[in-house]
Amino acid sequence: MSEQAQPLFDKSLVGRAIRDSFRKLDPRMQVRNPVMFVVFVGSILTTALWIQALIGKGEASPVFILLISLWLWFTVLFANFAEAMAEGRGKAQADALKAAKKDVPAKKLTSKADQSSYETVSASDLRRGDNVLVESGDFIPGDGDVVEGVATVDESAITGESAPVIRESGGDRSSVTGGTRVLSDWIVVQISANPGECFLDRMISMVEGAKRQKTPNEVALNILLAAMTIIFLLACATLLPFSLYAVASEGKGSPITVTVLVALLVCLIPTTIGGLLSAIGIAGMERLLRKNVIATSGRAVEAAGDVDVLLLDKTGTITLGNRQAVEFFPAPGVTAEEMADRAQLSSLADETPEGRSIVVLAKERYALRGREVKGEHFVPFTAQTRMSGVDIDGMSLRKGAQDAVRKWVEGQGGTFPAEVQAKVDEIGKAGGTPLVVAEGSKILGCIYLKDIVKGGIKERFAELRKMGIKTIMITGDNPLTAAAIAAESGVDDFLAEATPEAKLKLIREYQQGGRLVAMTGDGTNDAPALAQADVAVAMNSGTQAAKEAGNMVDLESNPTKLIEVVETGKQLLMTRGALTTFSIANDVAKYFAILPAAFVVTYPELGALNVMGLKTPESAILSAVIFNALVIVALIPLALRGVKYIPLGADAILKRNLWIYGFGGLVVPFVGIKLIDLGIGVFFK
Amino acid sequence: MGWAQIVLYSVVLLLCAKPLGLYMARVLEGQTTFLSRVLSPIERLIYRHSGVKPETEQSWKTYALAAILFNVLGMLVVYALQRFQGELPLNPAGLGGVSPDSAFNTASSFATNTNWQGYGGESTMSYLTQMLALGVQNFVSAATGIAVVAALIRGVRARETNSIDNFWADLTRSTLYILLPLSGLFSLVLVSQGAVQTFQPYAKATFVQPTKDADGKPVTEQVIALGPAASQVAIKQLGTNGGGFFNANSAHPFENPTPITNFLSMLAILLIPAALCVTFGEMVKDRRQGWAILAAMTFLFAAFLIPCVLAEQSGNPAFARHGLTTNANWEGKEARLGIENSALWATATTAASNGSVNSMHDSFTPIGGLAPMVLIQLGEVVFGGVGSGLYGMLVFAIVTVFVAGLMVGRTPEYLGKKIQAYEMKMASLVILIPCALVLLCTSISFVWPSADPSVSQAVKGMANPGPHGFSEVLYAYSSMGNNNGSAFGGFSANVPFHNFLGGVAMWLSRFWLMVPVLAIAGSLARKKVVPTGPGTLPTHTPLFVGMLCAIVLVVAGLTFIPALALGPGIESLRMAGGAR
Fold it and tell me: Which is nearest to B515 in space by CA: B391, B352, B329?
């Protein structure tokens, strides 16, 4: 599913956001944002001054105070609106998810082995460890792992992808999500989450923003904004005694009014960024969701922007998922038929695509039919042995990576023929994967598995390199094979013959060196590494263990998605930085508008600073306040969409953004305030 | 000629910065130097007798506590010596004890490296007080600054440790290896040029032509103040102290007798702050970083120096309107030093937190006077105080890195250290405190009634009415609130109210900044070093230097534009417009 094209200002969303902007006037909500809280207090103060003016003892004309105070309230409301819009877009998605979370009946098995006896209970009564039977047409009642059976499942409620997926016991496609539907066949699911803790629940709470905590960078920025607010508060408050002195010393004019001081303060404090800050954060999470990635914490999204090492699984990420057997190479003294027969035999119970392709190749080349092999003879692949095979008819057949098989053979006193070694190296150099087949202590030969590098992946890696991110390919292949694929795909480095321990060690080493590591994974054996990585994206098709260990889940199970996650993280920071710069740069024009207006009666010379030629002091001050409020609204789309990220060096990006938001921020308000003054100036004389 | 001098000055300054900077790096790293043969026995002797174990590592909290305790004790000593100087020796002029408020102000002023002087040296302080109280603080307050910046640099450089080394060792080494040899050398030059250095009582001269005082009584003789001045002047300049031995400070011929001493004094003002940038680059093992900071400082300095010189050269158009011709603004300047040397000194002494003067800043043109005032308000980071200028600038660099980091989409890092919420909190304090102190103290003095309740304390002390009077008060509290110590002149601050308020402001501005700076040092020291890559924002490029300058200017600009508009701003518009 590609990014959904939802209009930025959907009608129903806007309606709800407007209602929410008023609901957010609650002081308890306002106080959470120091910058906007100052505006909030200022609005109350000017409103009080207006009432005082109505009674007849006002410091300025009631109309002027009313206008100022109205626009201050608008400023607060606009900021609320921005936040409500961001939340609203998330909520719309949450509602869609909630629709999927029906309380369905579940067929709870009384014993795991016996699929015929079950009792029907409500899904909300299921607990971790319960086994349920899900048959064709049933909704899966909760998150869990398939322990038996195979079925096609419609996961469109979660992923938006309409094509059904296969879920089966064992392997890395065993995890199912509550709320999805079995289309054909049946499976037994072991429930892995208690009610309220399941994936869908977490997803809903994330997109609703209910549990949203400020991310570390947001906290740091908030501190800076608060400090600036204090500085401006002092600069404005101290103007009162200074103005009293000026009036006394010059003997004309009147001291600056509190209304004007509040107006000046609100214009100066960074309301643009302050008002949009939380919207930026929420919108970032929501943008990720639109890319079908669910982050379980905002912290992880932010960290993604800082990632400098990216660990990618070779299979499925760099190469097209499955490797195919294309050739058998028998060892000296072994016939091609014998070799093919043993290879097929060892692969009959192996359900991996590679295993199946060996069976198929043997059938096609040597007309060898598949035979029935009982499951108990099968020796499954494990990450530690890195071999699989069968023990049948007194034969111990094994196939696997050359170093693993060598160890196994040599452990039984056998040797590894040089011819096979030469072939293995040759295949490896060609970028293929050699699988060595052995019977007992005897090497039978090797199988050539071919890997196909995905199109366009090289360009992606070049882009990452420009962003300053190092890519590392993780593979179980031997170093030679790995090197060939690495060269073909353009990754910076690779980890060959990777075991879970080796992955974990690699991540730790990079982290010790001060780097931030991101990885994608789907298998249970990825879980420790996922837990260790700073940004860990688990594939939704992966196991429950992998999903628990990661801090993001990619619903589309597309491992290159990490690149987009990184971009979203960077966008998040850049948007904050750009709006902060813009906000501060705006202050120059506001000083030019308000200072002469506030003091021109006492010091007529200050009229020289009215470079915009604003009509009257009142219209100047009001124009600045109106501009300040409107600019928040004008920047809502930017806050929601994020600043465009272009993969360039840090220096080039900085230069570009300084021009757009620094210089732009300097110029825009001069034009904006002048235009507003022209518009409202007709009412002032 | 004037501009040629300014260029010569800048070139010599930058040439001297490198060797001295590298030397100071060796000193602060505890390595042997060419002076070690002579000085290390003395150093060991000091450690042995004071019970200091120089290799003991201190956490930032211990370090900060040591620095503050040491300085508070120093302050008490200075206070006591002033109060009891009447009963103590080396007081040939027979000066009595200093009043409590003035003594407090001066103690705070000298312990904080501000050296604001509410008093007149020759009419207030005995030789003993000058040497034992003020002279000692001139050394140790500067050494404290060097120590703190050394701690910050170590924090930047360290990898996952709690220690930022030992305050006592830093203090001792900075004094012994850096400040003492340099000021010894400079004192000798001063004496050779005619600066006084004596314990003899004040001299008396009989007028050839007697004159009359204000009451019409005949005056036949003049007292000529003397004293051990040269040694004091040397450290006053080198340690960015600026407290003059005599009231006229460096306009006095006994402090600054010749063009050579004038040139060398100006050099001494910026020498150590400039060289410390090189030290910084050397200690973090990336000299480009030091040059970048020095470049930012030099750029900002030039940006204020040039308008100041131009404004003073062009003089006051008001004279022309009265039919008088002048080729420059000569009011309040020492004729033997000239316009350019006065303007250069004024900018150098306010860029650095020195504060010694060779002309009356009060009499500068509005723009000419604005330059020193803004340089102070920038937070004393353009060269700034010995040590304190660099640590202030590094804090600004941290803020710059933070903003720039956001704009490039990466958690900011400076020299491999991630800048996070804690650093931002402390950096905000460092920037916020002086701004707040200046604005608050200025406005308090405008609302606090004097003996005459209708006149505020600020208005009472002013020498001029109107916006210029306002500038005088703003300048005074900018100077104290940023630990500069230079006086605009004109404003009478030696009254209990200003002595107390200013004394508190100076103390807070010095130590409430030092603590967050050391907190940053401690926090950075604990962090991992992030290796640089293409995604890292380089902090030695012209772009970064430009942005650093912009941030420094923006912070001060946004804070002080309203106040400055009401002081020098109006004055300048009026001078151009022809009023008054």
Answer: B391
Point out the residue among A303, A574, A581 whose CB comes nearest to the CB of B409.
A574
CA nearest neighbour of B174 among B26, B366, B333: B26
Residue A252 Rama label (left phi>0; alpha psi -120 to 50; beta): beta
Q: Which amino acid is at A672?
A: G
Please provide the size of chain A in residues: 685
DSSP calls for A259-312: HHHHHHHHHHS-HHHHHHHHHHHHHHHHHHHHTTEEES-HHHHHHHTT--EEEE
A165-168 and A144-154 beta bridge pairing = antiparallel
Q: Using CB atoms, which residue from B407, B439, B535 is nearest to A574? A: B407
**3-class secondary structure, A168:** strand
Give, for A436, the enclosing helix (H) or strand (E): strand A433-439
Distance in angstroms (rounded) separating the CA atoms of residues A203 and A194: 15
Per-residue pLDDT tens digits for A314-372: 776 777 666 778 888 888 888 888 888 888 888 877 777 778 888 888 888 887 776 76
Q: Number of structural domains, chain B?
A: 1
Q: Are A487 and A471 in contact (CB under 8 A)?
A: no
The alpha-carbon radius of gyration of chain B (Å, integer) is: 23
Instruction: Estimate the crossing angle of helix B259-283 against helix B388-408, to 10 degrees.
Output: 50
* CA B494/CA B505 separation, integer angstroms: 15
Report how many Cβ contacts below 8 Å link chain A to chain B: 206
In whole angstroms, what is the distance from residue B565 CA to residue B572 CA?
9
- Show residues of chain B in contact with A227, CB under 8 Å: 428-429, 431-432
Q: Residue A619 is encoded by which pair of tokens?
A: 């219209």
A460 CB-near residues (< 8 Å, 6+ apart): A560, A563
Q: Please tell me the total number of residues recorded for chain B in this structure.
A: 580
Percent of chain A with pLDDT over 70: 92
Of B403, B447, B530, the CB nearest to A577: B403
**Residues in chain A within 8 Å Cβ distance of B579:** 605
In this complex, do A238 and B459 lie within 8 Å of one another by their Cβ atoms?
no
pLDDT tens digits for range B308-364: 999 999 888 877 777 777 778 888 898 899 999 999 999 999 999 999 999 999 999
Sign of CA dihedral A586, A589, A592, A595: negative
By C-alpha distance, which of B118, B137, B125, B138 is closest to B91?
B125
* CB contact set of A85 (below 8 Å; sequence gap of 6+): A9, A13, A14, A17, A279, A636, A640
Residue A309 has pLDDT above 70, yes or no: yes
Query: Which chain A residues touch B558 with a CB distance below 8 Å?
Result: 228, 231-232, 235, 268, 584, 587
- Say how many Å lie between the first and final Cα of chain A, rounded: 59
Closest alpha carbon to B419 in B494, B503, B520, B514: B520
B562 Cα distance to chain centroid: 25
Q: State the Cα–Cα distance between residues A389 and A439, nearest whole angstrom.
A: 10
Q: What's the pTM value of the predicted model, to 2 decimals?
A: 0.86
Residue A447 main-chain phi, psi, to 5 deg: -110, 135
Alpha-carbon distance of B37 to A348, in angstroms, equals 84
Per DSSP, the three-state class of A195 is coil
Q: Which of residues 532-571 of A touch B (CB under 8 A)?
A: 569-571
Helix/strand/coil percentages in chain A, nearest 5: 55, 15, 30
- ipTM here: 0.92
Catalytic center residues of A = 313
Q: Which two tokens stand for residue B294?
A: 């020095």
Q: For chain A, what is the total number of helices (H) and then of strands (E)?
A: 24, 20
Q: Do residues A628 and A271 lie in contact, with contact meaning Cβ atoms separated by under 8 Å?
A: yes
> Which domain range does residue B42 map to?
2-576
CB contact at 8 A, B226 and B198: yes
How would you class A379 by CB atoms within 10 Å of its CB: exposed for 0-12, middle for 13-18, buried for 19 or more?
Answer: middle
